[in-house]
Amino acid sequence: MEEKYKITDENLMILSLEVIKFFHESMKERLKDLIQTSRDTTERSYKLISIYIGLLTFGFGYLYANLDFNATCYAIITLLIGIIRATYFILLVLLPRTYMPMGRNFDELQPNEYANGWNEKVTTELQQKLILRNEIISLNDAIETQHKSNIKRVEQYRHSLNSTIWGIVASVVIFILFSFF
User: Fold this and answer.
1) What dihedral do alpha carbons 5, 6, 8, 11 form, nearest 10°?
2) How far apart are CA 114 and CA 130, in angstroms?
3) How far apart are CA 42 and CA 62, in angstroms?
4) CA atoms within 13 A on the CB side of 1
5) Which of 18, 60, 119, 180 is the residue whose CA sits 20 to 30 A from 92?
6) Nearest 5°: CA angle at 151, between 148 and 155?
7) Radius of gyration over alpha carbons of the chain, in Å?
């Protein structure tokens, strides 16, 4: 297993508290950005599934009212297959997903453990550096998890759009084939 990148004890002593705070703030902004991307993907997915449901309702309604095995019906059936596949992928985007909230619970911060591990010789600045280093590690884990989740969801969203496009293309081909042959 690959060891995660972290600030070493030696470098922790060299870096100023302000620099470590900068790293921490920068990583918090990165996580906020990734969470916003996740929200945007979810919002677009809800809009898209509304369109898909409308198209499915219209397509099945047309088939029920005009069931006749001709080029139009075969083309609509093909289009519906593409939209059903697209709906499946968009549902994968919308179903409960991995979410990494910012920050930690009080019990996860473990203030008693920190206090027990320090003596009066540990300066306030060093205490802050040590705590921030652990928070940076936690933020990094959250960023990696959220990033992987976002990539997976974007791929599913892309598969959904591709399914719709291929459903349209296939329905046109089916319509042409059944109309002229």
Assistant:
1) 100
2) 9
3) 30
4) 2
5) 60
6) 140
7) 26
Residues contacting residue 154 through CB under 8 Å, at least 6 positions apart: 41
- Phi and psi at residue 55, to the nearest 5°: -65, -40
- Average pLDDT, rounded, for the chain: 90
Query: CB of 143 within 8 A of CB of 27?
Result: yes
**Amino acid at the residue 176:** I
By percentage, how much of the chain surpasses pLDDT 90? 70
DSSP 8-state secondary structure symbol assigned to residue 120: T
Residue-level pLDDT at 69: 86
Contact 94, 42 (CB under 8 A): yes
| Long-range contacts of 53-56, Cβ-Cβ distance < 8 Å, separation of 24 or more | 53/87, 55/83, 56/80, 56/83, 56/84, 56/87
8 pLDDT above the threshold of 70? yes
Read off the pLDDT of each residue in 39-46 and give the average, rounded to a whole number.
96
- Tokens encoding 181: 């042959």
CA atoms lying within 13 Å on the CB side of residue 106 = 1
As a whole number of angstroms, the distance between CA 106 and CA 115 comes to 14
